[in-house]
Write a structure and sequence with these properties.
mainly alpha, single chain, 3 domains, Dna Ligase, domain 1, two-stranded antiparallel ribbon, 333 residues, 15 helices, 8% strand
């Protein structure tokens, strides 16, 4: 056998050994699912493939960063991994992990804003799920530039964020979250409803303000059209609304759970006992039923209502009837 033949055989053997050394580990790597402990990994924008692979290996999501890089390059996905926050808590092969990263299957957060929540409660809820500190949420919600860009004349986003269940990507900016909630409210302000309230002299801010008062006063949705009618009638006649929730809102941190006569006499822009008309802006986030009730209040002549103590109200047309209802349902308890 010639020297050249021997060399070629040795070269072939070395090449085969090299192939086995590469493809056997790769084959095992591709087929072997990894069961990590639950891991949350944030991939910043602009991360390199090596950086992502190293993060995954360090977290135990894949067993080899080097082989993960080879996999991504072999599939043509090296530059297609999306930034975001990912959660890994079930067994998955490297290929399945890469599929999620390319698809942008990021971790998502779900939160619910109940009807009647005010802005501070919303900010606390967003802080609790990790969107941003409450102080940052409140700062954005009161930013004059942001309000002006959305043509909002109220001093904040109070009442402009629709109460609903939302799902957002983890790591979403607080501004985008607020914008999503604001956009949802805009969708709920239908042309039909806006036309109805406009006919009674209410702009969008006035509409949301009155709806927020109805939301806070009503014990149930069935009574909302009646309560809306009371306030609509009072506005038309120039009678002060005398709505306790607006007074409480205006007191802010000075209110400790017991509304007194002194509070009702304390002047502030939200005291609807001392001022006629609507306060400067909403006091909470009204839901769909309150929005509908203000757009189309009941066709009644009521000017008063008092709580019965069971979640419902007694409605009256005259002060004499109202005083009798107060004696029946409040002074006797």
């Amino acid at each position: 056998m010639s020297t050249s033949s021997k060399f070629r055989r040795v070269s072939v053997v070395l090449f085969l050994v090299l192939l086995v050394g590469i493809f056997l580990p790769m084959g095992y790597f591709l087929q072997q699912p990894v069961l990590p402990s639950p891991q949350i990994i944030a991939i910043p924008g602009g991360s390199s493939l090596y950086g992502v692979a190293h993060q995954l290996e360090q977290a135990g999501v894949v067993s080899s960063a080097r082989l993960f890089v080879l996999l991504a390059r072999g599939r043509g996905d090296a530059g297609r991994i999306r930034a975001g926050t990912y959660e890994f808590n079930t067994a998955a092969t490297p290929g399945e992990i890469l599929d999620r990263l390319v698809a942008g299957d990021v971790r998502r957060l779900q939160f619910t804003i109940p009807e009647g929540f005010d802005l501070r409660q919303i900010a606390a809820r967003l802080e609790a799920i990790g969107i941003a500190p409450a102080a940052e949420i409140l700062r954005l919600a009161r930013d004059p530039k942001f309000l002006a860009a959305r043509s909002i004349t109220a001093p904040s986003l109070e009442g402009y964020l629709f109460p609903e269940t939302y799902t957002v990507p983890a790591g979403e900016s607080p501004l985008r979250v607020l914008t999503a909630m604001l956009d949802e409210m805009q969708r709920r302000l239908t042309p039909e409803n806006l036309a109805a309230v406009s006919g009674r002299g209410l702009d969008t801010n006035g509409y949301l303000t009155l709806a927020s008062i109805v939301q806070k006063e009503a014990g149930n949705e069935a009574e909302m059209p009646l309560i809306a009618a009371v306030f609509t009638n009072r506005l038309r006649l120039g009678i002060p609304l005398q709505a306790d929730p607006t007074v409480i809102y205006g007191l802010g941190d000075d209110f400790h759970g017991n509304l007194t006569k002194k509070h009702l006499q304390q002047p502030n822009p939200y005291n609807t006992y001392t001022r006629r008309g609507l306060p400067p802006g909403p006091i909470a986030s009204p839901g769909a039923a309150a929005l509908q009730a203000v757009a189309f209040p009941a066709d009644v002549d009521y000017l008063y209502f008092v709580a019965r103590g069971d979640g419902t109200h007694a409605f009256s047309k005259t002060l004499k009837e109202h005083n009798r209802a107060v004696a029946d349902f409040q002074l006797r308890h």
